[in-house]
Structures are given as C-alpha cells and as structure tokens.
C-alpha cells in the first residue's frame, strides 16, 4: 500500500516528533524549510530527533560527538524561525548499544532534551538491519534468526528505561521479509516491557515508502499497544522538509482503528495526553 502524498489538511491536533537534519549526512534541508513545512501542515508541535552521537560507533550516518553544539544551534534556529505559534521540541534518536548506558547518561546531561526516541538499528556490532548495503545478511542469516536478534535488542532498549518514545518498532521488516505464522510471539514481550517501563511508542509512516509497504509498527502490534494503553505519537521520520507529517491522515486513521483516543506530547521529558481527532 502506498497512501500517496500529503494533503494540506491542517493537522492542528497532531505533532511530528521524528525528523532529521543534515548533520546525519543522509538528510537535507534547512531549519527554516522544516519549520515552514510543519507550519504548512498545521502541526501543533514539531520535534527534531536526529541520529544521536556515540563514541563507540563510527558509521557514516550520525552526527559526531563534537557536532552536538551544532545540532543544538540548528534546533535554536528552527525555534527562532517558528516563533511562538509552533513549539519546536528538542529530541534525539538514540541507538541503544548494550554497555553504552553511561554514555547515554552523560549525553542526557548535555542539553535540555524534551524527549529521546530509542531505536534499534544495530543487531550485531557491524550490522545495521536497515542498511540496504548489507540487507543480503538477512537471507544469509535466516529471517527467523534475524528477527530473534532484532527483538532481543529491542527488548533491551525498552528495558533500559532511557527513552520517552520507542522508535519504529518492527524496523526489521523494512525489506519485506517476515517469518511465517503469528508474529505476535515477537511483539508481546516488547509491548509488555513498554507497559512496565511506561514509555510511549511511535507510529512511524516511513515504512509505507519502503519495500515492506507498511507503517512501523504493523497493525497487530499497534492493537496490542492500544490494549496495553501504551501512549502513542505519530511520526514521519522526515529526512527532507517535504516529508514532514507525510501520510498523517492515514496514520491517524490507523491509530483510531487500533482503538486510540489520545496522543502523547512531550516537553522537558514530561508527557501530556491530547485528544486524537
Ligand atoms: Zn536516518
Ligand atoms: Fe531510525
Ligand atoms: Fe529517524
Ligand atoms: Zn528513524
């Protein structure tokens, strides 16, 4: 399914908290262009959450540790341009690597974050599961085994308790491979952990534009979240200004279908709930 382009529908009750900046080397656009897009879409709030730095990762798709001040300045420019009508939130999309807890705690102290999104890309030291350059490893390893590795990492990220929002829950399906049978065997322990920890989950529309052709997470996962009363945010994972709030009317419908009546917002790490209309 490909739900097509944005309408200029005025998403006045909605926020988009997952977006990137050119500091990650695979996104484009100025702070002004992203803010203008958010204003055009009529969003209530806009959040920036670029790929966070790590002293232990030297991949080519995140800001460097010493670029953090530049990132904070980028968000300041967005805030200046937005003015009082559009709150711009300061977030970060963090990878969770086992053993990196103390680095995350250091990083947390370096800015006044509104929220962090916890994401799993790495399922082994040298394997980011969403990297198309090494997607062949899924076939080599086997889909069941790959899913097992991924969800084990995801569970550890949730249980770390360091994230307000968990990012693109079933990213492992990006290239369209899924194990046979009822996939809730993978989802249930993660949803239970999110309920224990008290974090929110995102409904990320980027998957509609990937081989899997589905939002992250799948509808079955989202239904489990709604049943467990896991707070939800909608997100586009924009890597370009024109992707801000992309497919949000479809996402809103999907959330309503799952049983959601409210969406979460974050400021200074504090959550508030707002009616979903
Ligand atoms: Zn990215
Ligand atoms: Fe990501
Ligand atoms: Fe992202
Ligand atoms: Zn992402």
Count of distinct strands? 11
What pattern of helices and strands is seen along the backbone? EHEHEHEEEHHEHEHEHEE
The main β sheet shows up as:
7 strands, parallel
**Rg from C-alpha positions?**
17 Å
Task: Report the principal-axis shape.
Answer: globular
User: Could you name the ranges where pLDDT drops below 50 across 5 or more consecutive residues?
Assistant: 1-8
Number of helices: 8
Estimate what percentage of residues fall within beta strands. Answer: 15-25%
Could you walk me through the main structural features you see in this protein, from its secondary elements to its overall organization?
This protein has 277 residues and is an alpha/beta fold. It is 33% helix and 17% strand. It contains eight helices and eleven strands. It has a seven-stranded parallel β-sheet with strand order 1-2-3-4-7-8-9. It has a two-stranded antiparallel sheet with strand order 5-6. Helix 5 runs parallel beside helix 6, helix 6 runs parallel beside helix 7 and helix 7 (219-227) crosses helix 8. The longest helix is centred in the middle third of the chain and has 17 residues, at 143-159. It is globular, with a radius of gyration of 17 Å. It starts with 14 loop residues before the first strand and ends with a strand. Mean pLDDT is 96; it is low at 1-8. Bound molecules: zinc ion (2 copies) and fe (iii) ion (FE) (2 copies).
């Amino acid at each position: 399914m490909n739900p097509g382009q944005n309408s200029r529908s005025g998403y006045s009750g909605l926020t988009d908290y997952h977006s990137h900046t050119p500091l990650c080397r695979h996104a484009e656009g100025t702070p002004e262009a992203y803010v203008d897009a958010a204003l055009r879409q009529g969003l209530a709030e806009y959040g920036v959450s670029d790929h966070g730095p790590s002293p232990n990762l030297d991949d080519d798709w995140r800001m460097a540790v010493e670029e953090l001040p530049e990132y904070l300045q980028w968000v300041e420019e967005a805030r200046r341009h937005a003015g009082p009508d559009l709150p711009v939130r300061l977030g970060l999309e963090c990878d969770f690597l086992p053993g990196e807890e103390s680095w995350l705690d250091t990083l947390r102290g370096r800015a006044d974050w509104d929220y962090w999104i916890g994401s799993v890309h790495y399922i082994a030291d040298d394997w980011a599961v969403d990297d198309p350059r090494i997607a062949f490893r899924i076939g080599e390893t086997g889909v069941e085994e790959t899913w097992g590795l991924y969800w084990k990492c995801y569970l550890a990220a949730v249980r770390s308790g360091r994230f307000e929002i968990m990012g693109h829950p079933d990213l492992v399906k990006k290239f369209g491979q899924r194990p046979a049978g009822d996939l809730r065997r993978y989802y249930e322990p993660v949803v239970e952990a999110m309920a224990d920890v008290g974090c929110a989950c995102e409904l990320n529309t980027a998957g509609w534009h990937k081989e899997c052709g589905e939002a992250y997470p799948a509808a079955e996962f989202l239904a489990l979240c709604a049943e467990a009363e896991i707070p939800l945010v909608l997100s586009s994972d924009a890597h370009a200004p024109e992707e801000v709030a992309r497919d949000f009317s479809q996402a809103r419908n999907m959330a309503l279908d799952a049983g959601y009546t409210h969406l979460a917002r974050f400021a200074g790490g504090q959550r508030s709930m707002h009616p979903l209309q």
